[in-house]
Design a protein that fits this description.
Strand content: under 5%
Organism: Staphylococcus aureus
Structural class: mainly alpha
Largest sheet: none
Protein name: YolD-like protein
Radius of gyration: 37 Å
Number of strands: 0
Distance between the termini: 82 Å
Shape: rod-shaped
Order of helices and strands: HH
């Protein structure tokens, strides 16, 4: 039989369960380890806030529509009519990179 704890008294030399060995024979300098790990939320690093906000902003972007000449003409006439008659109009537009 293999001696597990050679430095302990004869009664505990072959004991593999540390709970059955009295405290005075156990090594008290065993490190605690990680103990209770408190998990951090996903957005913990400040750079993550920036990156996640950029990802969210990218997801909200809409691709620029391709309009025909007829659609552009109707759009221009509608904007002109609303501006001449002081009708409040909300416009959305795209800025294209050159």
């Amino acid at each position: 039989m293999y001696v597990v704890n050679p430095e302990l008294p004869e009664r505990y030399k072959y004991e593999t369960d540390y709970r059955k060995i009295p405290r005075e024979y156990l090594n008290s300098n065993i490190p605690k380890g990680r103990d209770k790990v408190k998990w951090a939320p996903f957005k913990t690093v400040s750079d993550q806030y920036k990156l996640l906000d950029e990802y969210i902003e990218e997801q909200n972007k809409v691709e620029m529509p391709l309009l025909s000449d007829d659609q552009l003409q109707i759009l221009n006439e509608t904007v002109y009519y609303n501006s001449m008659n002081n009708i409040l109009t909300e416009l959305s537009y795209w800025i294209t990179a050159i």
